[in-house]
């Protein structure tokens, strides 16, 4: 354990943050005295390093190489600067954004000072803003790269570091091999020692509000309000994130009536005090929005996650508890894909795209309207690169509706597109539920479900995947497996990924993969039926079979 104590003391000497220094100093003192819990804590903090990958960095705040903190962020910024300088023959430009989480602004300032100190042109967004504004700014400012400090919808004590590339990457998130190359540069900085010796500079620029204004104008143009929707009643919640300021301006510019607000969740709050988990997919996260909608007799609810790159939608449903239900990400994705397909019909080379775990219904929409269709690995780093894409989505509430301006999921532009659909429905004297029924009549009725198994021991995920590979299931309940694909080999027309896909003899589909951002094993289930009830019944039966199988394999 002397090695861990030495690592911790070296870290302590270079840490500029008084809070994490005090935290670590106390752990070191207890560990040096033989305290077993403190020794285990040091092992967890320094036994490995928070890995930089295609999702950048994301983890719990705290001292140590396996936590998000100012030392780690400084190393990441210096490594990223080295990568950009190596790949460019001119002075690179980097734009940096940040949200309302703990330390987001501080991490953004550290990054700006380090990048400017390395000689790069560095532009810091003017205040805390949604992730889509940063993704937009990379393209709008023709920057070589972008950094967004956010942990999106992760727990309150997490933060993260998301990286985009301009130029031929078009403002998309990084993919391999860039992730490994950046990680190697970061490791060299870490190996060199004390980050306090790295050059810093205050010679970075603060972007003007014209960047935000340009985003608002481009986003409002996604779906300007038609005449006759001023009486539309709807509810909005920002889930304590940064979405409201920007979204409210977009709504006004697009001509829609202002929503009823969940006031307790309107403004940024890094404690996310009214929710146990700041993700609109989680049970209870939208309870205050449901209450506000009942009070306002609303027609629908729109919610953004804390950095506003995701969109959740809920509609009245007498059969649901409390009279409201959240639409699945697949239902929203199919509605928005239908909208895009109708607009793009007849456009040569236009395509719809989704991740391979998202509803196969999007392929049916593309076929119905004569468009190309692409399935990708999970993540908008892949979806955003689909050829000819006019719309892309993933079932985890991510939607890309304006690829010419933002090459990432964007919960604000998707919300405007959804407002356009709701307005269309209202003018035609129907509802969003009515539009879903119309779509089902056109392409068939699709239903989806998901089984997520959260673990404390990450090795359980690997062992379960290994068990499924060694002994592939022959059936899920009464449904036999017609074919099984292991996408780790990259032979299914997509880059290699840790994904198992089973096609069943009744046309249903089951996909198993580890989560890319959380300690979860995720299983995605899709079925198609003659009616919504038929498809939902098949999904429920498959969910039960999946849970039984996973319990036996753990």
Short description:
The protein is α/β, with parallel strands linked by helices and 554 residues long.
Keywords:
554 residues, alpha/beta, Alpha-D-Glucose-1,6-Bisphosphate, Chain A, domain 3, 4 domains, seven-stranded mixed sheet, six-stranded antiparallel sheet, 17 helices, 40% helix, 20% strand
Q: Can you walk me through this structure?
A:
With 554 residues, the chain is α/β, with parallel strands linked by helices. The protein folds into four domains: 1-47, no CATH class; 51-207, Alpha-D-Glucose-1,6-Bisphosphate, Chain A, domain 3 (3-Layer(aba) Sandwich), CATH 3.40.120.10; 209-443, Alpha-D-Glucose-1,6-Bisphosphate, subunit A, domain 3 (Alpha-D-Glucose-1,6-Bisphosphate, Chain A, domain 3, 3-Layer(aba) Sandwich), CATH 3.40.120.10; 445-553, Alpha-D-phosphohexomutase, C-terminal domain (TATA-Binding Protein, 2-Layer Sandwich), CATH 3.30.310.50. The protein is built from 17 helices and 22 strands. It has helices at residues 2-14, 18-32, 36-46, 70-87, 104-117, 131-140, 178-192, 209-220, 243-254, 287-296, 329-344, 361-368, 380-383, 411-427, 432-443, 459-470, 532-553; strands at 57-60, 93-98, 121-124, 145-149, 158-165, 172-173, 205-206, 234-237, 260-261, 300-304, 311-316, 324-326, 351-355, 372-376, 389-394, 398-400, 445-454, 475-476, 479-486, 500-504, 509-514, 520-529. Strands 1, 2, 3, 4, 5, 6 and 7 form a seven-stranded mixed β-sheet that branches. Strands 17-22-21-20-19-18 form a six-stranded antiparallel β-sheet. A five-stranded mixed β-sheet has the order 9-8-10-11-12. α9 (243-254) links the parallel β8 and β9 (260-261). The mean pLDDT is 95.
